[in-house]
Structure formats: C-alpha cells, structure tokens
Amino acid sequence: QVQLVESGGGLVQAGGSLRLSCAASGRTFSMYAMGWFRQAPGKEREFVAAISRSGGSTRYSDFVKGRFAISRDDAENTVYLQMNNLEPEDTAVYYCAAQPTFYSTRLLTTTAEFNYWGQGTQVTVSS
Asked: Which residues contact 25 (CB under 8 A, 6 or more apart)?
C-alpha cells in the first residue's frame, strides 16, 4: 500500500502560479503510475494530469494543456504539478492518486483506475 499527502495549495491571483506536491510513503513508489485530479464544489472529480511509472509518458486534460506540467522524482517519492497562468476556473480541491502498473509507460486517467488517493489540497484562484 501507499499513503499520499498533498501540499502546496493556497490562494493565488489569476495569472499566478502554484506548485503542488504529493509525497508518497513506501519503498515502491517507482512501481506506481500517478495522477492529479480536481473537484470543484458541486461538480464531479475530474482528470487533470497523469504520468507513467517510468515518467516518460504524460497526459493532460484539454483545459490545462500548455499551462500545467506533471513530473515525478522517484528518489524523493514525490510527484509534482506545476500550475502556471492560473484561472478562476481552476479553483478546486486537487487530489493526488496512485496505482501500481505492470507496464512502465501506461497512463491512467480515470478515477476508477486508481485505488490510492490523498486527502486533497485546496487551490483558490481569485479574479
């Protein structure tokens, strides 16, 4: 099993940047594909970004493509989400998710594919 703890959320003005971190417990972090999701009030949790176990493959939702970047540091057991040019529509609770995968390049992009979740970190973007 793996435990995930997100950090780095906060209040930022539109056009600003934040970097979210997700620290994972355990010694097998490199076996996990990772993802970031977000959930705004009254809305379903939605996919934001994913990175494969190898780190060589990434995927983004259309609404963050070109603004957000996902990365991982297996030595630190951490996955990051760099968020630039933030918009008020990006306001949500951001969740980190993990799932072990057999294939190192596999990307997971739906909530149903992940069994491990963090507690979330609030991101608020003011206009």
From this structure: 2, 3, 4, 77
